[in-house]
Amino acid sequence: MTFIRNHLGLILPLFAILFAIEYLLVFDRVIKDYETRLQEQYTVIVVAEKSVEPNQIKHANVLVNSVESVDAESVLLRIRKQISKRNLEKIKAVIPAFYTVKLRHYPDKKRLEKLKRDLLSVKGVKRVQIFEKVHDRLYAMLLFMKTNFYIFGALIGLIGFLLVMKQMVIWQLEHKERMQIMALFGAPVWLRSGVLFRLAFVDALIAILLVTGGMVYLISDNYVKGILTEMGINTTLLLHLNDLTYLASAGFGIALFCAMWVVVRFREEL
Predict the structure, then answer these.
(1) pTM of the predicted model, to two decimals?
(2) C-beta neighbour count of 91 within 10 angstroms
(3) What is the gyration radius of the CA atoms in the chain, in angstroms?
(4) What percentage of the chain has pLDDT greater than the value 90?
(5) Is 79 exposed, middle or buried (0-12, 13-18, 19+ CB in 10 A)?
């Protein structure tokens, strides 16, 4: 029972740290995917007194990805039966030119304001509609969510790291007498500390497998798939092969670092 409790003392905090890392990786991908969809749907409207070359608008700011002219004929066709031909020609003569501008990525408020100034500097452009209220609310929501989840992940990581360190101290006390005897007989550091590194490696491996297995289960579970689909989240965002590299680096790195810390502390006590 003590053996299991000692191992859980390292596996559980490592699992919490790795789960927080994986959660942040998934959350970051979901947010980026959401920002991409917002960027694709978000449109800036440019109103010009007369026809303007689309390239002039496109080159006004690096955020501009594409510029399309809005065909006014489709609007005029709807009303041409309701007014005379003469009045229709007058409307054509005074109606401004409209352009829809698509952006390369979803900008913050500062860049959006600069975009507006740059577009207004184009000769012939008299108005730019960027829908500030909608943009500000969405961007503020994204920033709020990012900040809160990163703080939450950092707290979990800190608490988990302290618990791992505490468990390493317990292991040091359990094996202190054996390590001292081996030191008296001239055993090298790597030999007398080998048990700590083995325990750290095995427990880290178990924690990595548990997190990976949990994510694989979530991907394959139909109930979870249904919920994610309703939320508009692609299940492929949940687990990437690169995540295994991050989890392995973090799991083994933390466990072996803490084991090394115990070894250094033991040498100082001799």
Answers:
(1) 0.70
(2) 14
(3) 30
(4) 6
(5) exposed
